[in-house]
Write a structure and sequence with these properties.
single chain, alpha+beta, Nuclear Transport Factor 2, Chain: A, four-stranded antiparallel beta sheet, 19 strands, 26% helix
Length: 423
């Protein structure tokens, strides 16, 4: 009989650990370009193939041109006042600077909002428990919407233009770098088309099919056929000794014999010993690559049902729900650093595999790298992390799925220089 899968809760915990680290490990607080301190009000668009983000970087003092926040430059904002201030500002900004595609407005939702320090060299979130003065902070409010069709151009109408400022700078960050645009009262509209990596909207490939035989075929004992045959021999002996009603008895035998043949498939299945699956190192890598890509791909969706559906394609059986919940907590952890992680690509560097001893599947010691991006101050910043972990991969619902993962090591690779800006 096939051995049962490992404890799903244990699977969930161990897989969740690696997912948490593999995703959150790409997050940091990257530096901003050198220059003057950020303006009292500016904006940014982050164009990802799966999501569009609209960011407001604004001093709460500057916002009082449109909304009374009851603040003076020396006003202290205590920890207990921050949440109410965030709510007021978040609700106000939600209706500002609409973005449309072919005159159809996009619906944005508030994704995250933070108090940040107006430092020219670093995006730094102010601790929630710190008391600050109104002049010494900026608000970063980021609204998100799915990017359903990256081919379309965006139209942005910037209706937050301070009276004492000749223009507002809006940065547009995409795979091609960062572009700066100065919008004025006489020219408040921006028409922009995103630049995306080739194949950025492609779904991950499916893993190779399972081997033709994952376990020994069951042996069936045709008990009904055996019973009928056992009846035929004594019945036939009696019939040929007794001369009476020979035609009738021969007819009965003629019926019993075909019945025995017909019922030969009705039997008691006896399952043989489980067959191990021999997977080469290269084959293990070819299976693990799309499974890991599938995990990261599920983060591209905002809808929880879609995330769950995508994870179900690569996560093992009953472990799916705990893994899903753990990933949700991981994604929410961006509140601590102000970034949404975008995983762009991964590459398996090495894989050493061996069969599972008691059930179909294989285990593999794998090393891989993950490249990701975070967005701050109108830039995307690339991050590269290296991981080493042990996997167990098994047939679940006739597909390869990860059922166990144990992290051994992780390292952050050197940070590449930021993408150049273009006008």
């Amino acid at each position: 009989m096939l051995a049962p899968l490992p404890n799903p809760i244990l699977i969930a915990r161990q897989v969740a650990v690696i997912l948490v680290i593999a995703i959150s490990g790409t997050v940091s607080t990257p530096g901003q370009e050198q220059g003057a301190a950020p303006a009292a009000l500016s904006g940014a668009l982050y164009l990802d193939a799966w999501q569009i983000e609209k960011e407001f970087l604004v001093s709460p003092l500057a916002l009082q041109e449109w909304i009374d926040l009851g603040l003076e430059p020396d006003s202290e904002i205590r920890p207990e006042e921050k949440d109410d201030l965030k709510t007021t500002i978040g609700n106000f900004l939600a209706g500002k600077c609409p973005v449309t595609i072919q005159d159809e407005p996009l619906v944005f939702t508030l994704d995250r909002i933070h108090f940040i320090e107006p430092d020219a060299t670093e995006f730094s979130i102010i601790d929630h428990d710190a008391t600050v003065t109104a002049r010494d902070i900026r608000i970063s409010a980021i609204y998100a919407t799915p990017n359903f069709d990256p081919r379309q151009a965006l139209q942005v109408f910037w209706d937050l233009l301070p009276e004492n400022s000749p223009f507002v700078t809006v940065k547009v960050a995409d795979a091609g770098g960062t572009r700066n645009f100065n919008l004025t009262k006489f020219n408040p509209t921006l028409n922009i088309r995103g630049r995306y990596r080739s194949g950025a909207r492609n779904s991950p490939p499916t893993p190779p099919p399972l081997p033709a035989l994952t376990a020994a075929e069951p042996f069936r004992i045709p008990w009904l056929s055996l019973a009928l045959i056992i009846i035929i021999f004594p019945a036939g002996f009696i019939i040929f000794r007794a001369k009476e009603n020979l035609v009738i008895r021969l007819t009965l035998i003629g019926l019993i014999l075909p019945a025995a043949i017909v019922f030969k498939g009705v039997g008691i299945p006896l399952r043989g010993k489980t067959s191990s699956i021999s997977i080469s190192d290269a084959a293990a890598a070819r299976i693990l690559d799309p499974l890991l890509r599938g995990v990261y791909h599920s983060f591209n969706y905002q809808n929880r049902d879609q995330q769950y559906e995508e994870l179900d394609k690569v996560a093992g059986g009953e472990a799916l729900t705990p893994i899903f919940l753990e990933i949700q907590r991981t994604l929410q952890s961006r509140e601590r650093d102000g970034s949404r992680v975008r995983v762009n690509d991964l590459r398996i560097e090495s894989s050493k595999s061996s069969p599972l001893p008691t059930r179909p599947g294989f285990q593999a010691l794998c090393e891989w790298e993950v490249s990701g991006r975070v967005g701050h101050w109108g830039h995307f910043h690339d991050r590269l992390n290296l991981y080493r972990a042990s996997f167990e991969v098994e047939p679940v619902e006739q597909k390869w799925k990860i059922t166990l993962l144990t992290l051994h090591d992780r390292q952050r690779a050197p940070v590449p220089p930021p993408a150049p800006e273009s006008k």
